[in-house]
Amino acid sequence: MTPTEQLDGNLNTPLPKVIRFINPLGIEYEDRNFEVKGWQMLSRVHEELRAPRLVRVGLIQHSIVAPTTDPIQNQRDAIHNKIKSYIVQAAQYNVNILCLQEAWPMPFAFCTREKYPWCEFAEDAETGPTTVFLSELAKKYNMVIVSPILERDSIDGDTIWNTSVVINTDGTVLGKHRKNHIPRIGDFNESTYYMEGNTGHPVFDTPFARIAINICYGRHHPLNWLMFGLNGAEIVFNPSATIQGLSEHLWPIEARCAAIANSYYTCAINRVGTEHFANEFTSGDGKPAHNDFGFFYGSSYITAPDGSRTPSLNRHKDGLLVGELDLNMCRHVKDIWGYRMTQRLDMYAKELAEYVSKRDGKQD
């Protein structure tokens, strides 16, 4: 049975009356290598003056396709071709905003410390082949697409960044966000390739929702999540590449806690599989030299502002998670819990400024 048939063949059929806070959309498809799951996340509060503000988001997790020893063009083209088929399926389910995983058109080679051939994957955020490829699909399907890539900034001396490009429904680039926090742990040698971003905490006003992107390691920093909320985000995507044995015990917690603390939706996306490299590399964890980063465990999920969350996608398979979200819940949770009103930001700003001043003074 095809994914379309799971929706009774009519993608415009109104959804059934909601009888639970989180209610299955009726989207479910799975084969040996790929699964699709769909969930509604609707508010318990019924407003008299505002209709529900529904938006469908899609999260795609996936493995690479070609071996890392293949030519760079072949590797990227193979991933592009696979992801195109997944985006077509997302369009069948009327997804409005789609987010891909961190550095999605390439292997996560930032463990190797080798500059080449991996720097060849870096491309211009506005005119590079991946943005051109996705722009056509965004325009065709009236979809906002968040595309995390390795960016080459030729205007700034060929500086390389870890960047998420936001492509609007007309195929134009709405903006971009560069990764704020760079890990220095174990095999994560990312500072060999790029440093902390310089775009701050932008929120993008799309036709469907106000969105932001907290890239991978930034999820470990509560203030990073906070700033996206203060700047007005209703949905914050967390495209990631994280491995078993390092972060999996934290994975179900951090994006969920951020949704609660900041009264917005969070969408956590992780890649899948084990990627092998030709040359051995060592890292800061004291382990013998090895040829792979470890197992990327997928498990993508969505959390609502009240802390309820969808089940995760598979740990081993490519997948598409579709969530229908009622954005009105962001206000409902703020009204009920009052986190925003009781934040005491002035107090924390004063004490943080004092701490930074004192710390810098000690370093002089």
TrEMBL record:
MF terms from GO for this chain are: beta-ureidopropionase activity
Q: Supply the Pfam families for this chain.
A: CN_hydrolase
List the EC numbers from the record.
3.5.1.6
A single BP term in Gene Ontology? beta-alanine biosynthetic process via 3-ureidopropionate
Report domain CN hydrolase positions. Answer: 55-327
Q: Which reaction does it catalyse?
A: 3-(carbamoylamino)propanoate + H2O + 2 H(+) = beta-alanine + NH4(+) + CO2; 3-(carbamoylamino)-2-methylpropanoate + H2O + 2 H(+) = (R)-3-amino-2-methylpropanoate + NH4(+) + CO2
Q: Hey, what's the signal peptide range on this chain?
A: none
Report the superkingdom from the record: Eukaryota
This protein's pathway reads: Amino-acid biosynthesis; beta-alanine biosynthesis
Q: Name the keywords, alphabetized.
A: Hydrolase
Keyword Metal-binding: yes or no?
no
**Family from the record:** Belongs to the carbon-nitrogen hydrolase superfamily. BUP family.
Query: Which protein is depicted?
Result: Beta-ureidopropionase
Q: What organism is recorded for this protein?
A: Acromyrmex echinatior (Panamanian leafcutter ant)
